[in-house]
Every structure is written in structure tokens, then in C-alpha cells.
Amino acid sequence: MTMTTSTDLRLRDHVDRLAEQHPPLRLDDVDFTVRDRSAFAQRYGHVLDYMARVELEVDRNVLELTTMLPDPPEIDRYFYADVWQPQEIQHGLILDRLQVELGRPPTVADTDSVSFKLRLLGTLAHLDAFQDVVRILYYLTGMSTERSAVLAYNLLHEGTLAMGETAVAETVIGPIKRQEPGHFVFYQLSARALWAELAPWQRWLVRRLRTISFGPVGTNNDEQRADFGDVMTTLGIPADDSFAAQAVRVERELLWSHRAGIDVPPYVLKAFRRSVELARARADRDT
Ligand SMILES: [Fe+2]
Ligand SMILES: [Fe+2]
Predict the structure, then answer these.
(1) Looking at the CA of 153, which ligand is closest?
(2) Distance 179 CA to ligand 2 centre (A)
């Protein structure tokens, strides 16, 4: 527990507030009315499926966390078990129900397989100095995925309104997107505090591990990378650096500010571009 007391208090305060102001959304409060089901399914069906899967896979993320961080600070456990997971699961259930209402099959989420890579990290994390490295990787991943989620939900919200699907915009996407920024803030506060305490060798290792392991939210294989590329295309997310830059702004500041001229870490740009390429290649194959 290397966290300074003031940061710890701020974090506790933040998580208390999230718990109080953002209870998990309820399916009963959602209005699933869709004016033009086939047009909406055609345009956004695959986006709903992608997001539903990623949201529902938080159950696996919690397993991964308990594997990777055998002895987490109490505040981390409080956040992910009592606040974050219950909120995200409801996001997943609501989005999945919406796509089923549109006549699509429910999503297929992997909720229980923890990769060998993560189990190895977990074994090493029994050493305190290494656990701090693993923890900051967790916060960095949290920041980029939550930030990507906010940006993507904003675009989906705009697109849904533009199609005149007010009920979906106001009772599905709107309420979900309002719960994501608080998650980002938790990771950001945690990452900044922990980064300040890391030794040079730990920082070096974080940069190396991040460089070889970064992936867009919800991507574990090429099929899912192509799915993410399709989501980017539908939402109008460009494969240039603007979206990527926003998704990893704080990571760039913490890890790479000593390198002049790096606007977006190259591994991030590469990962986003690869998704778009894989989506294109798959579309070519299928036509
Ligand atoms: Fe979510
Ligand atoms: Fe979230």
C-alpha cells in the first residue's frame, strides 16, 4: 500500500460518490421503443453487439484482476467489486436486450477464461515491486478503455438521435454514457499517484510491457480486432491520430513526456490502424 493518504482519501470520496449518484441502471427503467427496427439494426446492430460483449466481459475482467493483483489496495477492490462491475454488467444487459429487441441474436461474451499471460503476471505480482507495475498497467488499460467508451457512446448517442430514435438515445445510450466518465476519473487519479512513486526501472518496464501489450478496448484476437475496426467505421472514428490521441492523453503525458514529438504513442496508432485494416480485409474476403 504505497498510496499516499491524501490520494487514498480522494479516491475513497470519489468511489463513495459514484456509488451514491450512479446506482446500477435498471432494465425496467428502459424504454426499448425503436421506430425503425430494421434501419437501426442495419446501422448500429454490430456496434450494440460489440459494446454489449465488452460490457458483459467485465465478469472476466474481475477474474483477471484477482489473478493479476493478488493483494490489491482496499480501494481498488472497493471500486471494481462494489461499484464498477455492477454498473458495467447492467450496461451490457441493457445493450444486449436492445439488440435482441431488434431481432438480432444475443452477444457471445467470454466471461471466464483468464489467459496464460495474465496468470504469469499474477505470479510475478506476488513481489510487491512487481505488483505496482501490474497495477499501473491495470490503471492505464482502465483509462484508455473508459475514455474510448465515452467517445464511442457520444458518437452512438448523436447517431441515434439523428435517426430519430429518441427513446434509445434517452433511456439507453444517454444513461450509460453518463456512468463512464467516473470510471475514467478513478483510473486517472490512481495512475497519477502511483506513477509518481515508481522507480526508474519500474517505469521502464511499464513502457516496455505497454508497448507490447496495448490493444483497443475489447480486442483479444484478430476477429475481434476486425469487429472493432467495423465499429470505428460505423461511428466515424478516423484511423488517424485524433481519436487515439484522446483515448491515451494521460498515458502519453505520464509515460512519454520525456520524448519530444510523440503526440500519440506509436503502439496505439498501430493498434487502431490494424483494426481498420483487418476489418477491410474481412469485408473484401466476404464479398
Ligand atoms: Fe460501461
Ligand atoms: Fe466504464
Answers:
(1) 1
(2) 7
